[in-house]
Amino acid sequence: MPHRVKFKRDYYAGGLIILFGLVAVVQGPGYTMGTLVRMGPGYMPTALGVILIVLGLMIAGSAILMPGDEVSERILPPEPQWKAWGCILSGPLLFVLCGQFGLLPGSFACVFVSALGDRSATWKSAFILASVVSGFGVILFSYFLQVPMPVLTWRAL
Predict the structure, then answer these.
(1) pTM
(2) How many domains, in total, are found in the chain?
(3) C-alpha 152: how far from its chain's center?
(4) Which of 70, 99, 102, 131 is 20 to 30 A distant from 58 in Cα terms?
């Protein structure tokens, strides 16, 4: 069976990950690198960039090694899920907007709206998921990690 690379999603995804890794590797050393024991601000982006490049090469390599069929694979699905895209992309935006009122409302709004992007999700399941994740997030970030973000605050817009 011939090996084809033509229009494979994995090939393009690997290339995009390699591009992100290259940007991090090029920009990271602009900051102080430091050592392994005392890492500087440029150490982590550079290390993560190298890891992204390796992962991108592995993903693109898997697209080359897999035998291709006669029908080329589409990059985008024939019927995009616009509701799912909208819900998932608006989740972080809602965290920024509702996060001004505290960690609890910000994380709840983010998870609730993002969960509604799933076709099988109901309002009840999204509410339960958002409640559990928000509670866990408050316990983890406020009490254990002591992130300086209030749990709940009232601010006038």
Answers:
(1) 0.58
(2) 2
(3) 25
(4) 70
